[in-house]
């Protein structure tokens, strides 16, 4: 079977979530092939291709329109900050004729209106979608779910959850300062709590 061809958004030459969470698997599997990168500029995409030793045939793009025009993309992986999801994915959904699926990091968009528009666009174009609430695939959580579903520990009547985060405090890292602006859509509730909710809601079959 031919590999699924990926248009990767947000894989920078320096350290990034895309490079840490996605690239290690995508670079060694025969199921997927990174065929194009979309970054803030062509130069940035070219630098990432070189830094991560991607094939010389990997195409470098600097605008969503250029990626949308590429006929060799099956799956788009969007791994950039949340407030950039909508302005990147909307033109892709509107213009692309080859994209069959989109994987987008969570949160999907900066606000409900943007998220609903992206979802409606994808549905109208017949494009499959997936958001990055990957914690539910954890082997540990699967084991916990099995124990709960089996009834071995009885009925769970209440749960207390404590969450610790490295940001959103009185002081923060300079590179995360943009999250202090509520318009970006990234905060303790939309990111950390939602990931936690995505994990815990999976555990009870009721």
UniProtKB/TrEMBL annotation:
<dbReference type="InterPro" id="IPR051317">
    <property type="entry name" value="Gfo/Idh/MocA_oxidoreduct"/>
</dbReference>
<dbReference type="InterPro" id="IPR055080">
    <property type="entry name" value="Gal80p-like_C"/>
</dbReference>
<dbReference type="InterPro" id="IPR000683">
    <property type="entry name" value="Gfo/Idh/MocA-like_OxRdtase_N"/>
</dbReference>
<feature type="domain" description="Gal80p-like C-terminal">
    <location>
        <begin position="139"/>
        <end position="196"/>
    </location>
</feature>
<feature type="domain" description="Gfo/Idh/MocA-like oxidoreductase N-terminal">
    <location>
        <begin position="4"/>
        <end position="132"/>
    </location>
</feature>
<dbReference type="Pfam" id="PF22685">
    <property type="entry name" value="Gal80p_C-like"/>
</dbReference>
<protein>
    <submittedName>
        <fullName>Oxidoreductase</fullName>
    </submittedName>
</protein>
<dbReference type="Pfam" id="PF01408">
    <property type="entry name" value="GFO_IDH_MocA"/>
</dbReference>
<dbReference type="InterPro" id="IPR036291">
    <property type="entry name" value="NAD(P)-bd_dom_sf"/>
</dbReference>
<dbReference type="GO" id="GO:0000166">
    <property type="term" value="F:nucleotide binding"/>
</dbReference>
């Amino acid at each position: 079977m031919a590999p699924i061809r990926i248009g990767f958004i947000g894989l920078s030459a320096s350290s990034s979530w895309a490079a840490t969470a996605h690239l290690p698997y995508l670079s060694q599997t025969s199921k997927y092939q990174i065929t194009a990168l979309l970054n803030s500029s062509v130069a940035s995409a070219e630098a990432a291709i070189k830094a991560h030793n991607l094939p010389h045939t990997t195409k470098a793009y600097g605008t969503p329109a250029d990626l949308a025009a590429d006929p060799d993309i099956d799956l788009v992986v969007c791994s950039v900050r949340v407030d950039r999801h909508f302005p990147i994915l909307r033109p892709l959904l509107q213009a692309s004729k080859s994209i069959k699926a989109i994987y987008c990091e969570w949160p999907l968009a900066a606000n409900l209106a943007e998220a609903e528009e992206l979802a409606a666009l994808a549905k109208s174009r017949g494009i499959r979608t997936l958001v990055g609430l990957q914690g539910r695939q954890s082997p540990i959580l699967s084991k916990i779910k099995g124990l709960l579903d089996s009834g071995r520990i009885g009925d769970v009547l209440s749960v207390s959850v404590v969450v610790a985060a490295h940001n959103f405090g009185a002081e923060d890292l300079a590179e995360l300062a943009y999250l202090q602006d509520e318009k970006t859509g990234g905060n303790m509730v939309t990111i950390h709590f939602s990931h936690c909710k995505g994990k815990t809601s999976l555990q009870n079959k009721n």
